Automatic annotation (TrEMBL):
GO MF, one annotated term: ATP binding
GO biological process assignments: regulation of DNA-templated transcription
Classification via Pfam families: AAA_lid_14, PAS_4, Sigma54_activat
Protein keywords: ATP-binding, Nucleotide-binding, Transcription, Transcription regulation
CDD domains named among the record's database cross-references: AAA (cd00009)
Highest taxon of the lineage: Bacteria
Name under which the protein is recorded: PAS domain-containing protein
Organism per entry: Massilia cellulosiltytica
PANTHER family assigned to the protein according to its UniProt record, in alphabetical order: TRANSCRIPTIONAL REGULATORY PROTEIN
Domain Sigma-54 factor interaction, residue spans: 140-368
Length: 435
């Protein structure tokens, strides 16, 4: 890509890097040919490997171990975009780091000369702390494209004070995501308060949320602060917001719009101070059309919607999730556990209507049978055939290929784990190889 004018001089690189030394974030300077020219100390500390030089190496080789640019390896390349727009571009990638694969928020800023030619780039890399791209004993885990898309959205919005709406089936991790939004925000030192809106009657909803004064109703023997008050300086997570009764929606809207509210039975107007994260598994837009959810409230909360994928759309993450979830309960019982290949195959071909919560429950049950620490298919109690017609397992080719690569048993075992005949398996393998 280098033209005659598109060269960054050594002295420019030196000047730039001395400037970037004052940044706490890891930063590198690159030319237009993907070569790393320099890096600040923060980069060396976080991504450098002793004895391995990075100057002169390609960014895609360093971060991804690829032998060609990311966009030719099926990933988004921010350099392409920056060339097209002459503006910074930001993307969430999984990078190889000295600590293994990690989610990294990459921002690429072009350096433009007097002739409006891009002569190089400064790249800022920020490791995402609230999600893990390898098995982990806590927090969000995943590295599939579907999961990364949601995480990329989260990364963009977390630091702002904008309301976030999490949309996803039950058990997809809405609460964990909400917590991650909180932790990635400037309010992370403040409280994170969860309000489960389902099953709250109108009166309960109001007194829980706004609190009440002494004597407000029978049994109110003392003043009680509401959850809005508790969330002061932090994040208020309204789970299942689609379940809020119509009559309460207007009060919620007023609270969100003006921040003003009153305790039940009180006269004093209080001022709220929270960042709103709401979640639902219900089709809110449809509910607005059917007039069971207020449109003004919908527009207010849906400024930044994030869709959380169901587990069946991120099957590649199942092995990592299984290992993480097994380790999470292992710490309670003290016994290490692992799933056999055949068990893993079965877990990957199931449809998971209850998503990660269901996966966790299945594993918690199965572990009680695994006396020797190995989880086998017969302990899983899964009706794989009911959830999948034979031959349609792992519908998309990428997850099928990934799955076959991981499976360590024979072809016959693989076919039976997938619930298909060996012939169908061979046909599918051939199709995938051809595609
Ligand atoms: N990406 C993930 N990595 C690891 N664990 C996860 C992930 N997503 C969810 N979990 C786990 O799955 C379970 C369900 O998650 P969570 O309660 O956040 O789901 P939810 O969408 O809020 O469910 P509901 O809609 O039923 O309230 C929890 O035990 C959570 O820790």
């Amino acid at each position: 890509m280098n033209g005659p004018h598109e060269i960054l001089q050594d002295s420019d690189v030196q000047a730039l890097i001395s400037y970037l030394e004052h940044e706490s974030a890891p930063m590198i300077v690159m030319n237009t040919n993907y070569d790393i020219l320099a890096a600040n100390t923060a980069y060396q500390r976080e991504f450098g490997v002793a004895g391995t030089p990075y100057v002169g190496r390609k960014c895609y080789a360093m971060s991804h171990h690829y032998d060609r640019p990311c966009d030719q390896a099926g990933e988004h390349c921010p350099m392409r975009n920056a060339f097209a727009t002459h503006a910074p571009d930001r993307v969430l990638h999984i990078h190889h780091t000295p600590r293994g694969p990690e989610h990294v928020d990459v921002e690429l800023r072009p350096i433009v000369d007097a002739r409006h030619q891009i002569v190089g780039f400064v790249e800022r890399l920020q490791t995402v702390r609230h999600a893990s791209a390898q098995p982990s004993s806590k927090g969000l885990v995943g590295s599939s494209p579907a999961f990364n898309r949601s995480l990329g959205d989260l990364q963009r919005v977390a630091a702002s004070d904008l309301p976030v709406l999490l949309l996803g089936e039950s058990g997809t991790g809405k609460e964990l995501f909400a917590r991650a939004v909180h932790e990635g925000s400037g309010r992370s030192r403040g409280p994170f308060v969860v309000v489960d809106c389902s099953g709250l009657t109108e009166t309960l909803f109001e007194s829980e949320l706004f609190g009440y004064e002494r004597g407000a109703f029978t049994g109110a023997s003392h003043r009680k602060p509401g959850l809005v008050e508790t969330a002061k300086g932090g994040t208020l997570f309204l789970d299942e917001i689609g379940d809020v009764p119509l009559s309460m929606q207007v009060k919620l809207l007023r609270l969100i719009e003006s921040g003003a509210y009153r305790r039940v039975g009180g006269v004093e107007t209080l001022q709220a101070d929270f960042r709103l994260v709401a979640a639902t598994h219900k089709p809110l837009r449809e509910m607005v059309a059917n007039k069971v959810f207020r449109d003004d409230l919908y527009y207010r909360i849906s400024a930044f919607p994030i869709r959380l994928p169901p587990l069946r759309e991120r099957r590649e993450d199942i092995p990592m999730l299984v290992e993480s979830l097994l380790a999470r309960s292992a710490s309670a019982s003290g016994k290490p556990m692992h799933a056999s290949d055949a068990a893993l195959a079965m877990l990957m071909s199931y449809d998971w209507p209850g998503n990660i919560r269901e996966l966790r429950n299945v594993l918690d049950r199965a572990r009680l049978f695994a006396d020797d620490g190995e989880l086998r298919p017969e302990y899983l109690n899964l009706d794989v055939s009911a959830s999948h017609a034979p031959g349609t397992e792992l519908r998309d080719d990428a997850s099928f290929r990934d799955y076959v690569k991981r499976f360590k048993g024979s072809r016959k075992e693989l076919a039976s784990a997938l619930g298909m005949s060996e012939r169908s398996l061979y046909r599918r393998l051939k199709l995938v190889a051809a595609g």
